[in-house]
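Summary for the steering committee. One of the milestones for this cycle was to obtain a three-dimensional model of the protein with adenosine-5'-diphosphate bound, which we needed before selecting residues for the alanine scan. The sequence and ligand used are listed below.
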Amino acid sequence: MNPVAERAQSDERRTRRVLWDAEVRAAIIGILAVAGVMLIFEIVKTAIWSDMTLWESHSVTIAFSAFAGGLAVWGAIRRHANLQGTLLSESFERRRLAELSARLTAHTIELEAANVRLAAEVETRTRLERQLVQSQKMESIARIAGGLAHDFNNVLAVIFISLEMAALAVQTGGPIETELRVARDAAERAARLSRQLLSFASHRPLEFVPVDLNELVEQAATMLRRLAGEAVQVRLRLEASAAVVRGVPSQLEQLLFNLVVNAADAMPTGGHLEIATRSVSVAASDLPSRIEGGLFVELCVSDTGTGIPADVLPYLFEPFFSTKGEGKGTGLGLATSYAIVSRIGGTIEAANNADRGAVFRVLLPASEESVADAHLAVTAAREGGGERILLVEDQAAVRDTAQRLLESAGYHVTAAEDGEVALALAAQMRVAPDLVVTDVVMPRMGGRDLVDGLRARWPEVPVLFMSGFTDKVVMRDGESNTIFVEKPFSRELLLSWVAQLLPATHQP
Ligand code: ADP
């Protein structure tokens, strides 16, 4: 009971006591008044009306006494009633006040709770607004970056293949070949950067497949060791249990690559780098709200480098944030990694190791699916034997280079600048081309429509889609005789894919 109600209750008890006292007092006054009046009349009677009979004398006395007693009782009752009224109204007032105060207390508690709820809602709203602004910022950057990377890939495809063909034409081991190799290495770096931009920018539906993370790390290990440099000792600690996640293999390789490059950069004079995987069960309360709890595959890339300064930590995953200085860092590595991980419903966080260096912990939702052999087998490149290839590409430089490459390898190439021209050329062919190599996005008619048109007539015609974008939405489920590749690519890879697709009768 609250203190005000307690006080009201004790006031009521006191009121009842006062009323009882008043009633007793009224009764005593009444009796005394009757007795007094009787006495006075007896004296007066005896003095004035001494000739009255006893009966007459008593009747008058009783009448007077009754009148006086009545008056006294009436007075007492009135006083009592007044007092009771006053006391009752006071007690009623107090009870009303007590109720009011109790209601006020209850409302105050409710208001306080509402206030807390409101503050939490305001905070959530502010956080969501901030996230919205951030995602809109990322979205516009991604659009610009995606467009740039696509055009860039077409340019790179030409540089790549031309450099390779030039290298074939010059003397092995000579100074020109060395220069060409240097140029090719630079082009390769540019291609990696452009892939980075595309993975960051990709906002189209991606083709997710089950990927064994342990297998992916093992397969990439040689390249990762080369990336890390000789001074860095790379150790793999891959937990043997299930490490299957749903993702895009090339993007997961990109993620690994980004984390390893950063770790190596943080250890300019060498050190230890560890890539570890394990299965973990994580509760929803330990994850951001967009992710459900459950089984995850954890990937930790840990180094013994400089570590991450506290003032840098909050900005790590922002696009274009870099502390590596002009010309060295692009600030896209971690932003891309963040985008890759988020797209498959995972998380990535950075921390400093207790002793030295930094650790990046990635959690990816575990999948129960089994891993199909999703990677493209690299068939040995071989020279052609006059097989007819229909090559469709809108960028003249890419088209010409690819044509030169394929022709130099012994294929017969018919080139077209878009789907419509290619269909018109195909209409004049009596037999199907042995292979169609086509770009995906082209003006007037794109690669997909072209292939649908060609396959209406020749259902089995093999197709190699090549695109400056990284997603395979152009591919249909279960479509055979079809490969999707990303530009730019090397001469060897292109010839290997061509060899893979050509009908068996043409194989040497
Ligand atoms: P970039 O590598 O081009 O600078 P990133 O987005 O990959 O861009 O990295 C952003 C920044 O995060 C880096 O410039 C660096 O300051 C910091 N960083 C990333 N990884 C590490 C690491 N392993 N150790 C220390 N700092 C790191």
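Key point for the committee: The CA atoms of residues 34 and 65 lie 5 Å apart.
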